[in-house]
TrEMBL record:
PANTHER family: GLYCOSYL TRANSFERASE-RELATED, SECRETED PROTEIN
Gene3D superfamilies membership: Glycoside hydrolase/deacetylase
Gene Ontology terms for molecular function: hydrolase activity, acting on carbon-nitrogen (but not peptide) bonds
Domain NodB homology as annotated: residue spans: 68-268
PROSITE patterns: NODB, PROKAR_LIPOPROTEIN
InterPro entries from the UniProt entry: Glyco_hydro/deAcase_b/a-brl, NODB_dom, Polysacc_deacetylase_ArnD
Chain positions covered by the region annotation Disordered: 24-66
One GO BP annotation of this record: carbohydrate metabolic process
Protein name, entry field: Peptidoglycan/xylan/chitin deacetylase (PgdA/CDA1 family)
Species this chain originates from: Streptomyces griseomycini
Keywords associated with the record: Signal
Lineage per the UniProt record: Bacteria, Bacillati, Actinomycetota, Actinomycetes, Kitasatosporales
Signal peptide residues on this chain, from the entry's feature table: 1-22
Length: 281
């Protein structure tokens, strides 16, 4: 091997061989891929099915004191029958909240209903294509998957899977190309029937361990205090991206983010917490 390398070096000394010298490599080295080679995209992390093959449920990431990660999540709620209210001027979006997250450079996961994406296609597409965010499924209709869930209408068990799949169809139709395989039950309500119904979709159900309390709240400071008092390493915080029903969220976030950073927390998307919980983060 040493003799071969010396022979190559001798060739490089010749002016007529300079070009060849630049391309000669020791035999044991492999050439690097061309810069234009497409990157291989890995699949988003998910949890393995639960007992009896039921849809797995994720509530928080690892409680690692040395890695104080927290995920802010925002539910973009709009039920299937709220079209007339939107037409009359009610706003179910919250562009100032999204702008604040961008300004503060906060990664976040937006759980979006299919009906919301249809009502605000430009915003849905903008969120879905921004690497700061990830879009996850909050059903198409925002109807409950169990009875007696905060007064929401109920999806029949034989329509639950279709409702979730319809939301993914709505996302793709408005230009959200890579929605995540995560699902949040409307109202946070579920039972074994609902978990069984969604097993074929392959989603991981995502709940939370910190309730922001911003729904219908009028005191942004109270919302911020509730979040700050509840956050621990690995927490998933549930807030809302709905201007009419959660008007204080943007102001609360502007308090929450700098204070948690001061305490040593870093903001991540839900996918990072799930990957860490599954030993893949």
């Amino acid at each position: 091997m040493i003799t071969r390398v010396r022979h190559v070096a001798a060739l490089c000394a010749l002016g007529t061989a300079l070009t060849a010298c630049a391309t000669v490599q020791p035999p044991q080295q492999r050439p690097r891929p061309a810069p234009s080679s497409p990157a291989v995209r890995s699949s988003p992390p998910t949890l393995a099915p639960g007992p009896s093959g039921l849809t797995p449920v994720f509530r928080n990431g690892p409680r690692t004191p040395g890695d104080k990660a927290v995920a802010l999540t925002f539910d973009a709620d709009m039920t299937a029958d709220q079209g007339p209210r939107a037409a009359a001027g009610e706003r179910f979006d919250h562009p100032r909240l999204i702008a604040a997250l961008r300004t503060l450079e906060v990664p976040a996961t937006v759980f979006m209903t299919g009906r919301w994406a249809e009502e605000y296609p430009d915003q849905a597409r903008s969120i879905g294509r921004d690497p700061l965010f990830e879009v996850a499924n909050h059903s198409y209709s925002h109807y409950a998957f169990t009875a007696g869930c905060h007064g929401l209408p109920t999806v029949p068990a034989d329509r639950m899977r279709a409702d979730v799949e319809r939301a993914y169809t709505a996302f793709r139709e408005v230009g959200v190309e890579d929605p995540m395989p995560y699902f949040r039950f409307p109202g946070g309500c579920y039972d074994r029937v609902a978990l069984r119904a969604l097993t074929p979709t392959g989603v991981t159900a995502v709940q939370w361990d910190v309730v922001g309390g911003d729904a219908f709240a009028t005191d942004a400071e109270a919302v911020a205090r509730q979040v700050l008092d509840g956050v621990r390493p690995g927490s998933v915080v549930v807030l809302h991206c709905t201007r009419s029903a959660a008007p204080t969220t943007e102001r609360a976030v502007r308090t929450i983010v700098p204070e948690l950073r001061r305490r040593g927390y870093r903001f991540v998307k839900v996918s990072e917490l799930i990957g860490a919980a599954d030993g893949r983060g």
